[in-house]
Amino acid sequence: MSKMRRIRKARFALPSLVTLGSVFCSFFSMSLVVRAMSLAGNDRIDMLFWAAIAIIGSIVFDLFDGKVARWTHTSTKFGMELDSLADGVSFGVAPAVLLYGFALCNAGIFGIIACFLYICGALLRLARFNIEAPDEGVQTYFKGIPSPGGAAGIASIVLAAISINFTTFSPFELKTLGVAAIFLGILMVSNVWYKTLKGKKTKADIGIVLAGIAFFGVMCFVENPAIAFFLLFCYFVMWGMLLTVYINLKRGPRSSRRRKSMIDMRAVSNDSDESAKSDESAKSDESAKSDESAKSDESAKSDESSKSDGSIPSDKQVQAVTTLDGLPMLNEDGSEVKGDKKD
Predict the structure, then answer these.
(1) pLDDT per position as a tens digit, 91-106
(2) Which residues sit opposite 338 in a β-bridge?
(3) What pairing do the DSSP bridges indicate for beta strands 193-195 and 141-143?
(4) Cβ count within 10 A of residue 237
(5) Which DSSP symbol is given to 138?
(6) Phi-psi region for residue 165, left (φ > 0), alpha (ψ -120 to 50) or beta?
(7) Tens digits of per-residue pLDDT, 220-275?
(8) Nearest residue to 62 (alpha-carbon basis) of 19, 121, 4
(9) For residues 266 and 242, is the Cβ–Cβ distance under 8 A?
(10) Which domains occur in the chain, in start order?
(11) How many CB atoms lie within 10 A of CB 163?
(12) How far, in Å, are 224, 296, 342 from residue 306 at the CA level?
């Protein structure tokens, strides 16, 4: 029994261990960047290369922690909070440190601001995801590129630059890298739609995924895996932008959507007013019927009480007053005495 209990506890700890594996990879990446800052030449480039690979390792762990939780039926609120905090470190801080150590440390204050804005975008993206995530069901769309996607963009830039020996930068090239970091931060908090590939998949979704995989394979053969990975990331970004354009064209202009929503709200308010009026009229009819029934019951009760008492009103019917012998009583002038009947 104790063994089964231990197995159960280990099963609940498994998703959290996978999440912490993502944190370890990101921390390992940052430690390599710190070591690379004190080196030069090929040793520095090798450290930065493995730092970028460690970021990809964080992405792989993040892809599997949720799946492990669903496979083992151990999804908990604690695991969700831990995953959100881990993503902030793995896909917010670590990629910014990588890009800063690779190139933007030579851009002065602009490089610091660019990396900081990227971190802000990642943290805001995670906070918005926690609010907008449904309690039940499957989320089929993301609003803004996911934070692992932003980290993949930073890692792909570093790996592609190292693969073509692009390791020294002019001031313009440094500004271009800083703008790219800011663009990724903005893209994470934007309203660009991205498909999650969860739930029901259409033929178009499967076709787009297969086209991306085929494109990645061809580019690996033509160029090298680092360039192929960078182009695959660009393909993913463009897919989301084109999907957003398609959704907005299908939904129509924002002014017409707003007008339609106002018309729907007015229709709903009119329906609620009519239902309220019908409820009030029904209540008034019921109260009138209850009052009438109450009045009829009171009149019936009064008639029954009058019949049961047998009393005769003195102003309508006056009977002759008789003596104990049954003979009428006479006044002094000889007339009968009139009055109420007495026992």
Answers:
(1) 999 999 999 999 999 9
(2) 320
(3) antiparallel
(4) 18
(5) -
(6) left
(7) 888 888 999 999 999 888 888 888 888 888 876 665 556 655 565 665 566 666 66
(8) 19
(9) no
(10) 2-208 (1.20.120.1760)
(11) 17
(12) 111, 15, 18
d(CA 127, CA 81): 11
CA distances from 101 to 44, 194, 256, 261 (A): 10, 30, 49, 50
Structure tokens at 332: 């002094």
What is the C-alpha to C-alpha distance for residues 303 and 295, in angstroms, rounded to an integer? Answer: 12
Tokens encoding 3: 């063994």
Q: Which residues pair with 319 in a beta bridge?
A: 339
Tokens of 122: 């990642």
* Segment among 2-11, 125-134, 207-216, 317-326 with least mean pLDDT: 317-326
Residue corresponding to tokens 């979704």:
205
Six-digit token string for 109: 């204050």
What is the distance between the alpha carbons of residues 30 and 91, in angstroms, rounded to a whole number? 12
Token readout for 7 is 């197995």
**Do strands 319-320 and 338-339 pair parallel, antiparallel, or not at all (unpaired)?**
antiparallel
Single out the residue of 193, 91, 199 nearest to residue 132, CA to CA.
Answer: 193
CB 216 within 8 A of CB 156: no
Interatomic CA distance for residues 48 and 52, integer angstroms: 6
Collapsing DSSP states into helix, strand and coil, what is residue 272?
Answer: helix
